[in-house]
Task: structure prediction
Amino acid sequence: KAGVTQTPRYLIKTRGQQVTLSCSPISGHRSVSWYQQTPGQGLQFLFEYFSETQRNKGNFPGRFSGRQFSNSRSEMNVSTLELGDSALYLCASSSTGTGRETQYFGPGTRLLVL
Amino acid sequence: AQSVTQLGSHVSVSEGALVLLRCNYSSSVPPYLFWYVQYPNQGLQLLLKYTTGATLVKGINGFEAEFKKSETSFHLTKPSAHMSDAAEYFCAVSAEAGTALIFGKGTTLSVSS
Result:
């Protein structure tokens, strides 16, 4: 099976712009989670989608949003970018999204905000 | 609420030496515990996990970890380090109710020849 794929891999934006990141989960996986990784804050949970519904959300401002499509692919959007949004954004998928399941991570999208 | 503490942000060992990366967790419910490894410019790869059953868990690349409820610990060990083990290691905890992984700050492992 192909792994989790994320596009694009690298992105440069300027403050105030918005950005959309894409994630394709492993075939058959219905749960997709997003994480932000920064040197200062480490790995932080953004949100999780299951069957096109947001099921769980981390402590991030409303500028961070996401959605999931019927084929389980997910997108994450950040509006009004700030310098502090520069980070590696990781997507992870699992079969049904229970806590005991392994989450399989993609390679990430590295976002730089200038 | 759940949390994870990884003691030591940087651990250095010689090739062939024992690797010990420490992880302590806090959880109000029975936890599920994970160790992930991240190589430069890559995502996270699962090394091993504890859900239920045997408290000594064996993972890939010769790593193992032991769940000790009384000490709220889940330390990662490997008897003999290889140069290829140099990477960043993350301990994480989750609960049955949701899939949010709570990660520790990570430990960078350096291996010298």
